[in-house]
Design brief:
Blueprint lengths: L1 E5 L6 H12 L3 E6 L6 H8 L5 E3 L8 H9 L5 E3 L4 E6 L2 E6 L2 H9 L5 E4 L6 E5 L2 E5 L12 E6 L4 E6 L31
Parallel strand pairs: 1-2, 2-3, 3-4, 6-7, 7-9
Antiparallel strand pairs: 1-10, 5-6, 8-9, 10-11
EC number: 3.1.4.-
GO molecular function: hydrolase activity; metal ion binding
Protein name: Phosphoesterase
Length: about 200
C-alpha cells in the first residue's frame, strides 16, 4: 500500500492542490498529515479528499475546534487525532507519527516501529535507525525552504521516497491570496461536501 506523508501546510492552498494532483498518479491509498494545517479551509480540503486522511496536531493549527468539527462531519475523509503524535498500524506496519523531531529519533530507536514520520522543521530528511525508517517529508508550504515536498511510504517494500512539487508558490506571496477563499478550493476529483 502506498501512503502519502505531508506536513507543515501552513495554509498554502495552491501547493496542496498540486499535491492532490500529483498523488492521483501514484495510486495512494492513505494520506498522513503531520500537523500545521493553519486553518479550517485546509481541513475542509483534506476532509473532501477521495483518499482517507489521518492528521495530528502541530504547533500552528489555528482553530482546533473548527478543524475537529470538520473532521466529524458526515462524509468527511479526515480523521484528526487528539495530540501531536499517534501510533498507527497500517497494512501490518507499525508506524509512529509526530509533529516534533525531538520525539522521532527515540521512537525509531525503540525497535517498536517499522517507520517513524515527523514534521515541524520543514526540512526533508530520510534516515534509517536499525530497521526503522525515519522520515521528515519536508513542507507543503514552501515558506522556509523554498521547496514543497511530500513522502510516499510503500508498506509492501517498507521503503520511502520524497517527491518535490513543481510550479509551487510561497504562502507569503500575493499569488497565494486567491487560494484562500475556502468556497472555491477543493481537491481535484473530490467529493462534494456541504460545510
Amino acid at each position: 500500500m502506498k501512503i502519502a506523508i505531508i506536513s507543515d501546510i501552513h495554509e498554502n492552498f495552491h501547493n496542496l492542490v498540486l499535491f492532490f494532483k500529483e498523488i492521483e498518479k501514484l495510486n495512494v491509498k492513505k494520506i498522513i498529515c503531520l500537523g500545521d494545517l493553519m486553518n479550517n479551509g485546509i481541513a475542509k480540503m483534506l476532509a473532501a479528499s477521495d483518499i482517507p486522511v489521518i492528521a495530528i496536531w502541530g504547533n500552528n493549527d489555528g482553530d482546533k475546534v473548527a478543524i475537529t468539527k470538520t473532521s466529524l462531519k458526515e462524509g468527511s475523509n479526515l480523521t484528526v487525532g487528539f495530540t501531536t503524535y499517534d501510533f498507527l498500524e497500517i497494512d501490518n506496519k507499525k508506524i509512529f507519527i509526530t509533529h516534533y523531531p525531538i520525539i522521532a529519533k527515540p521512537m525509531a530507536k525503540s525497535g517498536d516501529f517499522d517507520a517513524v514520520f515527523y514534521g515541524h522543521s520543514h526540512k526533508k530528511h530520510i534516515d534509517k535507525v536499525n530497521d526503522c525508517i525515519i522520515v521528515n517529508p519536508g513542507e507543503i508550504s514552501s515558506h522556509r525552504t523554498s521547496t514543497a515536498s511530500f513522502a510516499i511510504y510503500d508498506t509492501t517494500k517498507n521503503d520511502v521516497e520524497i517527491i518535490e512539487l513543481e510550479n509551487i508558490i510561497c504562502v507569503n506571496t500575493e499569488d497565494a491570496k486567491k487560494y484562500r477563499n475556502e468556497k472555491q478550493i477543493k481537491p481535484p476529483n473530490s467529493k462534494t461536501h456541504e460545510y
